Amino acid sequence: MSERVIALVDQRPPSLPLPTLPAGQDLSALPLDGLRRPLTDLRISVTDRCNFRCSYCMPKEVFDKDYAYLPHSQLLSFEEITRIANVFVGRGVRKIRLTGGEPLLRKNIEILIEQLAALRTPDGQPLDLTLTTNGSLLARKAQSLKDAGLQRVTVSLDGLDDAVFRQMNDVDFPVADVLAGIEAARAAGLGPIKVNMVVKRGTNEHEILPMARHFRGTGIVLRFIEYMDVGATNGWCMDEVLPSADVVRLLQTELPLVQLDPSVPGETAERWGYANAQGVHDKTLGEIGVISSVTQAFCGDCNRARLSTEGRLYLCLFASQGYDLRQLLRDPAQSDHTLAQTVDAIWRGRTDQYSVLRSLRGPDSASGPGRRVEMSYIGG
Ligand code: SF4
C-alpha cells in the first residue's frame, strides 16, 4: 500500500541551511551558545500524532482527519534517534526527554528506550531518561517502559473534573483513566512523577485547588504551567494567561507554601514546598512547581535543544525553523564526527530567547516574525 503524502511544505516551514564547518574545528571543549548557555537537555519528539485534541496544542479544527501527518518514512528510525542522541551526549547532553505528539503512540517505543538507556556519558554515567505523556496509555505501558530502562515520567493533566477534562482533551477521554495511568507509573517505580497542568484563565483555573489537594502528600510533584503562545494554531491571547503569581496566591489561601531553592541550574519550574504549622517545608506533604513561561521568562538558563520527529533541530520552543540533521544521518558519507561538529557549530550560533523578547515587546505581542512550529511537532 502506498503512503499518503501531502506536500509538507504547506504544513511546516523549510529547514535552515546547515552551518559551514570551520576548518580544524576543535571539539575538545563543550559548546556554549551565543548567550553562554551550555547544551545539557535534549527533547526528542518521536511522533507528531496524538490521540487528544487539546485546544492549546492540537485544536480539532486544524488537526482534523485531513491533516497531513508525517509519513513513516520521514520519521527518524530508532537507530537514527539513538545515533544522534549519542552525538548530543558527546556535546554535553545529560538529560533526554521523549515527547510527541503522544510518545506512547509510537510503536515499540520500549525498543528505543532500551537503546537510549544503554548510552553513557563520556565519563561513563547513564543519562537522565524521561518521557512526557498525556497518560492515556500509561496504565497499559508503565511496567514495560520501566523494564526498558525509563527512569521517570511527566504526565500532562489539566484538571480532575471529568467534564472539564473531557472538554479540554476534546476527545471525551475520562480523567479516571489518566489517574489509573499515574498510579501504574508509581507502582512500576517510574518516579519521581511530575504532573503538568496548563492553566487557562476562564477554562480550568477552578481546578487548581482540587488538583493541589489531590496530589499533596503523594510524592507526585504538580506543576502549574502558564498558557503559552506556542505554535500558530491555538489562538493564544494574554487574557487567557493566569500568571503563576496568582496561582501561588490562590494556593496560599488554603495550603501554605514556602519557596524552595532550585534543585538544578536551568530548572524551568519555580519550586514551592507545602509548609507545616511552623511555616517550614514539610517534606511529607511534598512540593509544587510553577512554570512562568509568559510572565517571567527563563531563557537566561535555557539549555534545551529539540529534535523534531523528522530530525530537525530546533533551538527554541518558539522557533519557526529548524536544522535538518536527517539529511546528514541518511548520508553514508557523513560520520559521527561530522554530526558532532555540526551540532557544536549550530549550538555555538544560538541566540534564541523568545520569551525574554516577548516580555520586552509587551504582554500582548505573542509572536515575532515568522510562523512558529507547532508544539505537537517538537514536543513541549
Ligand atoms: S523561549 Fe525559547 S529560549 Fe526561552 S526558555 Fe523557552 S525554549 Fe528556551
Describe the structure.
The chain is α/β, with parallel strands linked by helices. It has a single domain (about 40-380), classed as TIM Barrel (Alpha-Beta Barrel), CATH 3.20.20. About 25% of the residues lie in helices and about 15% in strands. Strand 10 (about 305) and strand 11 form a beta hairpin. It binds iron/sulfur cluster. Iron/sulfur cluster (SF4) binds near residues 302, 316 and 354. Iron/sulfur cluster (SF4) binds near residues 299, 352 and 353.
Characterize this entry briefly:
With 380 residues, the chain is of the alpha/beta class. The chain is 27% helix and 14% strand.
- Provide the domain count: 1
Strand order of the largest sheet: 7-8-9-6-5-4-3-2-1-10-11-12
Tell me the radius of gyration. 20 Å
Contiguous runs where pLDDT drops below 50 for at least 5 residues? 1-10
Alpha-beta content class: alpha/beta
| CATH class term | Alpha Beta
Number of helices: 11
User: What is the correct CATH architecture?
Assistant: Alpha-Beta Barrel
Any idea of the CATH topology? TIM Barrel
Principal-axis shape equals globular
The biggest sheet, with number of strands, parallel, antiparallel or mixed sense and barrel status, is: 12 strands, mixed
Number of strands: 12
Could you spell the SSE succession in H and E letters?
EHEHEHEHHEHEHEEEEEEHHHH
What share of the residues lie within helices? 25-40%
- The averaged pLDDT comes out at 90
CATH homology superfamily? Aldolase class I
**Which molecules are bound in this entry?**
iron/sulfur cluster
Instruction: Report the portion of residues in β strands.
Output: 5-15%
What is the distance, rounded to the nearest whole angstrom, between the alpha carbons of the first and last residues? 33 Å
